[in-house]
User: Fold these one by one.
Assistant:
Number 1:
Amino acid sequence: MPAPLEDLPPALRPAVRRLASACRDEERVLAAWLGGSLARGHGDAWSDVDLHLAVTDASRFDPLAWAGGVLPLVLADPIPGVRGGYVLLTQDGLHVDVVLHPGEERPAPGEPVRTLLDRRGLLADTPGRLEAPGPPRLPAQEVRLFLYLMYAAVAAVHRGEVEALAHGASVMRDELLVSLMLAEGGRDGGSGKRLAARLTAEQREALAALPPVGVDQAGLLTALEALAGEYLARGRRLAARCASGWPESLEAMVLARWADQLGLRPAVRPS
């Protein structure tokens, strides 16, 4: 018998109970389970509800019509790239992702599972495979991408393309620098959700110390100069730690171009 739902966040508990009851009342639903943070036991009031349904005939089961009869929906759309996946938003702001499975399909090994319904007794509750940090690694292709974006920033400045410059700076900070920090601890980039728990206090302080990515060119150049210094210093240290090669010639060309064309000289700390 599925475990009670008392340990779920109170803000989500009524909706999950309604969904679980609707699953029991719908004979075509053979199994229903929660995934994601609610199955791992890490959910909070702001978590999504990741609901998986295994049904007798997935081609004839309309999950949007079914969910619309359970919750007051204001959005119900397919999730791009997820077979049988739909994103739902309710009138009170609840986010539910529903993924439809053929009746014989079961959760993939290592996926978190919190059983809501199991007519055939084939599910087992599990928090899923926990992320185990591996050895530090240098994301070499991302390093080259960071240097390329530094190179491309020169043309954006001379063309006055502030929007392109701001977008590039955001990618360099929020994606590439964060990914490099995670690689320092042997972690994959993955989703940005719950990122703070995966970064060290030193890494969070370094990100907070960076100038904000502004909306004017002068502010953007200040942010880019500090961002480049932080990234290149960390990347060089990580390359030395991992005994990995570093793109010396590419870096030298980009830094010379920045100095000549933009007057920027990132303060790259010694390795």
Number 2:
Amino acid sequence: MALSDPLIGSLTLLDLIVFIIFFVILAVISKASYSAVRWYLDRRVSKKASKGFARLVQYSILVMGLYIGFVVLLEQDISSLFVSLGIISLAVALASQQVLGNAFAGMLIAASKPYELEDWVEIGGLPITGLAKVRDIGLMFTEFRDLDGRIVVVPNSFLLANKVINYTKGGFVSLNVTMHLSPESDLEKVFKVVYNVADIDEDILPNLKGDERTAFIRQLELPNIRSILGDRPDLKMFDPKVNVVSVEKSRVKVNIRIWIKDPQRRETITSKFLLELRSRFASENIEMADS
């Protein structure tokens, strides 16, 4: 077959070779543009804004380049080209279904922004990651770093089809701590100790001061927060709650609910809170029971 022989309509093998070379050059240019924008902006704006704008430039170059490639190099009308490809187009589409699905999901994620760079999230259907920070958002995949330092790469189509809990956008998260006490325990004293320990812990809400308190109150006024908490959010709703869950012959089960601002430190905060409670219980002669 000669290079000038038509393959599909007026499209020749030479046209396809030229288009492939053009696409490779286009990919290199778009990647170089991404790196150049990152190099320039990383020192001037936040990392999140730098990456977002660099991705926008990269995708814009790719889209415009592909359009030029089809219309100018191949001299094809895109809509008529898809029609003329017929069965071949259908086969390619089926073979590329997962790739196209990831790309489409990536564009939807970029438009709707359920999460952004540096956000702390938890992915439903993928318990291996647990809590993880968004490290990079690409057209096909999103990259996360979990609390153990592992890099987890997840297809965008999976993220679009599953629940993503965004702790950063929420601004706070509740923790439920269960304790078992002796049935002879003075519950009024237990409640008093729990409230006191929570009140002096700077990591537990609503124990905020100065500018941090002002910033948090402003955060509560954001539309996405008010839609959950109501029109008049109040710091009192973040007060610790202590409830007796069950009373048995050998123990009393108590559930403690606290609120924190830093979900990525929830295990550390919970551990510190429990250790302080155990110490205070011992000093107040409050006995723990076996769980």
Number 3:
Amino acid sequence: MSMTGWLLLLLLPFANLSAPEEASSSPDIRPEVSMKVLSCTEVVGPDTWLVLACTFNIPDKWHIYWKNPGISGVPTEIRVEGPDGFVIKPVVYPRPQVIPDSGGITYGYEKEVTLLVPIHPPATWPDQPEVEFKVSADWLVCRGACFFGEAETTIRIPWLVPAEQGAEPPPLKPWATTLLAEAYWPRPLKRRPETTAKIVDSRLIIEGRVSQVGKAGFLPDPTPGVTFGEPVHTINDGRFVLSVPFRVRLADTLGQPPLARGLLTFGDKATMPVFDVSVPINVSSTNDSSVINEKE
């Protein structure tokens, strides 16, 4: 799969930050989480795409969190700083695991996970042999006890101007081709045939063909001020319907347009297919009981 093709599907040398050590059997001793950063291509050129792969290695029985941690936890975050003209896109998270917690459900990753940072270079760049990016990350690692962690590194990637205009973009490295083809990267919902999402009477309604992979599910990733209830799953004539109730507290939206957003999942394993869902919520109707105009 080409770099451009992969990015459209999503909508659109190693740096070892801590030496791995044997994980402690005691949750009271800080576990060593490490992060490595790779470029998915050998070089970067003008007006193409670059993707940084940030891989976290997590000690056995510990976990870090998805961008929506769930009932508790803190999102794992990556920040990339690059030269002027390079557009840093939002981090792409793979489908998380559902991790039971004493207070409810959390979402995260165990053992190893790779997060992706797409970057779009400018059409022109000064005559320099390399492009430098500073990559930093923060996470919370938990197993009973929890510890904050952070890492920072710099990665340099050769800058190569094609010999002629319209040349093919730099190819993906073999390992990156395999990585980006995995089913656990969220795809746009419109790429799943006969599958739709809409708002009906304070509910997010997702419907489509039943998958042979497994039962449809929903992992919430709401914008500020939006909270979801438990999804209701039904099947009729080979089609599933997921009905997910939600509420909007206008005072907590932070000025952002509220979205019914999350992941449509199939099967119960984090390696199985997943699709992005994002539907604007119309809050103009004050008669809608799901819209709370004042803090309770």
Number 4:
Amino acid sequence: HPPQPFGPKGGRKMAEEGEEEEVQQPEALTTELITGGLKTLAKTVDGTGFALTHFELPDSNVGDIEALAGYKHLRYLSMPGNAISDLKPLSGIEFMLSLDVSRNALVNVELPSLAYLQVLNLAGNKLKAVQGMVMPMLRHLDMSGNELETVGGLEGNPALEVLLLHDNKLTSSDGLGLGSLKKITLTGNQIANVAGLAGLVGVEELDLTGNAVEDLAGLPAEGKIAKLNLQGCKVDAVEKLDALAEIKTLKELSLLENPVMEGFD
């Protein structure tokens, strides 16, 4: 006979199920956790001494990061997979170069203009809107896998080269056509027209798979787009492809699973 669970009614199994249902409350960041996550001794920016400049603490159910406010010399902060909902305690860490708070509980981004920040990872949070983010040296911004319906004010990031926005709820491309961009991901949104992308003069590949694009007018004629993927969009007439004739650099185009392709093998 197979072994029976403990107790007359399967007590062990019930306990295990109960444990799975229990929701852990986020914890506050303690001095002990901070000490364990600090590394990399480097000279301070003002040259007057040395400080630990890297902090890493992934997947630790930390929600309150107030204790980090005093660590002014941090340059690299990585805390993916926690329960952070408020970034304001980081406001005074002015020399930050890289910040990874992906897979947390952020519903908005309240950060001052961090003058030296170059990499910001906000993927997998609960952001619905981002407006007026200003980071003069920001090069790489990942906001994929959120619930974004609108993104605006990115013009305040003149150095931005990589913008990852796939798997959100964007319905418009307005404000996304930044001339500085070399890469943008927009797959898995609900974008209906591409007029807002007219300024994407530095992007070579544009992937709009799984969006609701019907009209192609507005893509940058003077840009570098060589590869355009419109698979699973809603282009329904051959005439709408006329706009692509302006893009002299275009070499590869996918229109699979669009209404315009019905009847083609």
